[in-house]
Write a structure and sequence with these properties.
Layout: E1 12-15, E2 18-21, H1 27-68
Antiparallel strand pairs: 1-2
Length: 76
């Protein structure tokens, strides 16, 4: 769907329930926004990695449990 003639797309920051026009921000504010975006991306990446490692751990524990069922446990 095309935008109406003469309408401009403005870059808008949504932050803590409020909207801000990025074109009105100073360079320092824009750097802070970019830094926050980078931090959010890195956090998501780390969370995804953690999920992958957790799934791998579950698979390894399941395989070990199956193999250990072939052994007699030690008596206490």
């Amino acid at each position: 769907m095309a935008s109406p003639q003469g309408a401009e797309r403005r870059a808008v920051l949504n932050f803590e329930g409020k909207r801000y026009d990025l074109s009105l921000m100073s360079d320092e504010m824009k750097r802070l926004v970019k830094g926050l975006q980078t931090a959010e991306s890195q956090l998501k990446f780390a969370q995804d990695q953690l999920r992958v490692v957790a799934v791998g751990r579950q698979v390894l524990a399941s395989q070990l449990k199956r193999k250990l069922s072939e052994l007699e446990p030690l008596e206490d």
